[in-house]
Amino acid sequence: MKNLLILGAGRSSSTLIKEALVRAEAMGWNVLVGDVNGDLAQAKIEGHPRGTAFALDPHDTEERDRRIRESDLVISMVPAFLHAPIAEVAIRAGKPCITPSYIAPDMAALDGLAREHGVLVLNEVGLDPGIDHLSAMKVLDEIREQGGEITSFESFCGGLIAPESDTNPWHYKFSWNPRNVVIAGQAGAATFLDGGRVRMVPPHRLFQQARSVEVGGMAFEGYPNRDSLAYRERYGLTNAQTLVRGTLRGAGFCEAWQAFVTLGCVRDDARLTWQQGVSWPVWLRTFLPAEYAGLGIRDAVAACTGASESALDKWAWLGLFDDSQGPKTTEGTPADVLQELLESAWVLEPEDRDMIVMWHRFGYTLRGENRERISALRLDGRDSTFTAMSDTVGMPMLLAAEVLLEEGGFGRTGVEAPMDRAYYDVLLPRLEAWGVRFEETDRAV
Amino acid sequence: MKNLLILGAGRSSSTLIKEALVRAEAMGWNVLVGDVNGDLAQAKIEGHPRGTAFALDPHDTEERDRRIRESDLVISMVPAFLHAPIAEVAIRAGKPCITPSYIAPDMAALDGLAREHGVLVLNEVGLDPGIDHLSAMKVLDEIREQGGEITSFESFCGGLIAPESDTNPWHYKFSWNPRNVVIAGQAGAATFLDGGRVRMVPPHRLFQQARSVEVGGMAFEGYPNRDSLAYRERYGLTNAQTLVRGTLRGAGFCEAWQAFVTLGCVRDDARLTWQQGVSWPVWLRTFLPAEYAGLGIRDAVAACTGASESALDKWAWLGLFDDSQGPKTTEGTPADVLQELLESAWVLEPEDRDMIVMWHRFGYTLRGENRERISALRLDGRDSTFTAMSDTVGMPMLLAAEVLLEEGGFGRTGVEAPMDRAYYDVLLPRLEAWGVRFEETDRAV
Fold first, then answer.
1. Taking a contact as any Cβ pair under 8 Å apart, which residues of chain B between 244 and 263 contact chain A?
2. Is the backbone peptide bond immediately before B178 cis, with ω within 30 degrees of 0?
3. Can you give the pTM of this predicted structure?
4. A290/B189 Cβ within 8 A
């Protein structure tokens, strides 16, 4: 009997916990699920006889650490800054550990300790990061093995809404943490490589420079993610002239969102108080220079942001130009207030299906010929709980846990991300059963 | 014999140290000056027999703390985050402490301890904050005592260049920390009150909304500082409909600076590497969307930022459109590279005189009449060492030290800022001898 410990029972853990329990009997696993919200953990195990739920006390890590030491493997789904302390306890107890998050400096610092203890801490093994690494590295290695030289790499991923559930002009509903959507891209400038030139886009212009991406006949747009330049080294793309990783949204989203950014409605750095009963138009005046006071609210927003009619229509759909509607809470940062509005406007209804889209384009030269390979994934969710997001974040981790618990592991120790064959050869074929099938095209250009 | 301890011997300490030494004989003071750069401390005391210089080891605070305990008063001119630890040692040793900086939360937390020990820790007693509080509170109290009701308060201050030393189209040279000028306003949104309405300006539009201010027939422009709303409480302006504090620059500065902000040249959050020998036009392409690649560099900057010809001329004066000039260092954040350029372009030459301008406007009603009082200061520096900046930052602190060491203090203990009569009645008249003379006008409007 092995103990699989899952810390964190939030939205992204649904598939992970469910599928761990589905396998529990056959595998001989106990599945232990802890969350600061004990009831949430309880609800996720649905009374399964192999499941145990418990509450995590954020101020007392003693029980958490005891659970880690009693486990055979830990999957950490808690907020990212807590991964390293958890991993350290796991390493010292000789237990492998899996996280879906980028390797932060404090996690990277545990590499030596993990090697010393012969333990693997596998990070970045969700969707993005995760499936992006697995699928991109597989193609990159294939092209290189054929003798090709990579000249460009562009990679975009988005958690979106399936067409049949797409009922709003933003083409968006929340399938993950709404806060991260509201403050997306605002933490720092985006840097990438574009035709041999390093480019930097400051957060306040990030959504202005969206580019079109077509996947399976559907039109999307992508904006660059923070530090694409790091992938020169991470993916070994030293000779690529173009290197950009980014996020996908539905067509038209970026321009309308840019108007929020331009006004400052996504700022999270100033708490303000508005009068009770304030309307959205009055709230918006907070961000508009006094010179626009003579214009109606829609015209004032247009004048200050340059937003098109189509973008303004998206604002209108949210009720932002309606004098009879307004924020419920009247105190907080602009991001808090905007999030509250969007959480009710972009709710994923129980029968809604979300959709994951991932798109890689590899430019390369092979025997003097310029070629392009496109590898693309579209995956729809099952419902609003077992979303494509939850499936694609959870399944790579669960499949990795299976390999570690039942098949002797990947032959690796240390603090790792799944960047090579040892991982993708094992995980990608198993992910196919979950609909993670990339369509590839390859042509001379 | 009393020991006056000055920690930090940077640019802003010149007048403070010099004038402390001038008084040392008459007052019976030893003046001890410590800096991480021991040579700088040595240079500032100029071999004065009452002066002692020493090096501060940033990794070993033992000597610093011993010096604090052996002193009779401490003036902390070190980086602001170090004030609270210094103040705590001073409080426990029963020694008063003076800083020129805003009261940060860790400093505010020492208030109880300071009261317990009967010690005054006086902060915000330089120029801005400092002379701004003293001069504004004096007028606010006067108006209130006359029975007036304050309806608006606007206050701007700038460290600029005297007209006879103003030799560049930016009307700016560095009289204080260049880094703070380059990243000015970028740390967070500005909030203020404008005709009864709370307004927020995000950093990326901060210099777009500059307003004109005229002082003594000279034209300036001001942009809002971070949190003016806090002054409702700090200055007791609960009924004011307009409340804004800001920074002054020369006419035309803000529009040209806004173009740097718009492009992202002031970002300090992404380290980039450029090729050795890169020109300024090529460097600027980093920030320009690819769609402008077909335009010459001046036109591309104009198209992306909307900058006027006059603003572009200011860029041209810096050499930014010149293919034969470029950054010396090729690695760093955009702010690093821009700072390097400006430090050579905006240098305060030995004979140059800087200039401090402070301007308050008080709107009030008195016996049913709407009135306006304007209180304005213009002060020129003596040379590039004994700048108006150094005088106006240093002298309020030195005069406060005199009161504390020789005259029994201000009758106050705790962690304070000089917000009331106890301070301004004593300090303002003495500052007049240093040229800190506010001109007042008052009229019905």
1. 262-263
2. no
3. 0.93
4. no
Question: Does residue A59 sit at the B interface (CB-CB below 8 Å)?
Answer: no
Q: Does B306 touch chain A (CB under 8 A)?
A: no
Which residues make beta-bridge pairs with B369? B366
Measure in Å the smallest separation between the Cα of A198 and chain B Cα atoms.
Answer: 6
Q: How many CB atoms lie within 10 A of CB B351?
A: 9
Secondary structure letter of residue B238 according to DSSP? T
Q: How many residues does chain A have?
A: 445
Cα-based distances in Å from B97 to A422, B7, B73: 62, 11, 6
CB of A90 closer than 8 Å to CB of A97? yes
- Interface A-B, measured as beta-carbon pairs within 8 A, has a size of 86
Instruction: List Cβ neighbours of A116 (8 Å cut-off, separation of 6 or more).
Output: none
Q: What is the largest CA-CA distance in chain A?
A: 72
**Where are any strands of DSSP class E within B139-254?**
149-161, 190-194, 197-201, 211-215, 218-224, 242-250
Among B198, B200, B273, beta carbon nearest to A264: B200
Q: Which secondary structure element, helix H or strand E, spans residue B303, and what is its range?
A: helix B297-305
Nearest to A202 among B188, B191, B267 (CB): B267
Return the structure tokens found at B154: 């606007």
The nearest alpha carbon in chain A to B282 belongs to: A197
Residue B148: phi, psi to the nearest 5?
-80, 155
Contact between B97 and B69 under an 8 Å Cβ cutoff? The reply is no
Local confidence pLDDT in tens for the 445 residues of chain B: 899 999 999 988 999 999 999 999 999 999 999 999 999 999 999 999 999 999 998 888 899 999 999 999 999 999 999 999 999 999 999 999 999 999 999 999 999 999 999 999 999 999 999 999 999 999 999 999 999 999 999 999 999 999 999 999 999 999 888 999 999 999 899 999 999 999 999 999 999 989 999 998 999 999 999 999 999 999 999 999 999 999 999 999 999 999 999 999 999 999 999 888 999 999 999 999 999 999 999 999 999 999 999 999 999 999 999 999 999 988 999 999 999 999 999 999 999 999 999 999 999 999 999 999 999 999 999 999 899 999 999 999 999 999 999 999 999 999 999 999 999 999 999 999 889 999 999 999 9
So where are chain A's domains? 2-123, 131-256+349-387, 275-330
Q: Which residue of A has its CA nearest to B190?
A: A270
A336/chain B closest Cα distance in angstroms? 15
* Contacts B287 to A, Cβ<8 Å: 199-202
In a 13 Å sphere around the CA of A345, the CA atoms on its Cβ side amount to 21
Q: Is domain A131-256+349-387 in CATH 3.30.360.10, yes or no?
A: yes
CA distance B350 to B169: 20
User: Among B189, B267, B269, whose Cβ lies nearest the Cβ of A270?
Assistant: B189
How far is Cα B354 from Cα A68, in angstroms, rounded to an integer?
Answer: 63
CB contact under 8 A, A200 and B264: yes
Cα A179 to Cα A268, A334, A341, A356, B82, distances in angstroms: 10, 12, 12, 19, 34
Closest CA to B4 of B63, B54, B73: B73
**B2-123 with B131-256+349-387: one CATH topology?**
no
Is domain A2-123 in CATH 3.40.50.720, yes or no?
yes
Residues of chain B contacting A260 with CB distance shorter than 8 Å: none
Out of B262, B269, B290, closest to residue A194 by CB = B290
Q: Is the minimum CB–CB distance between A212 and chain B shorter than 8 Å?
A: no
Residues 29-58 of B with CB under 8 A from A: none
Angle at A245 between CA A242 and CA A250, to 5 degrees: 120
On whether any CB of chain B is under 8 Å from the CB of A196, the answer is no
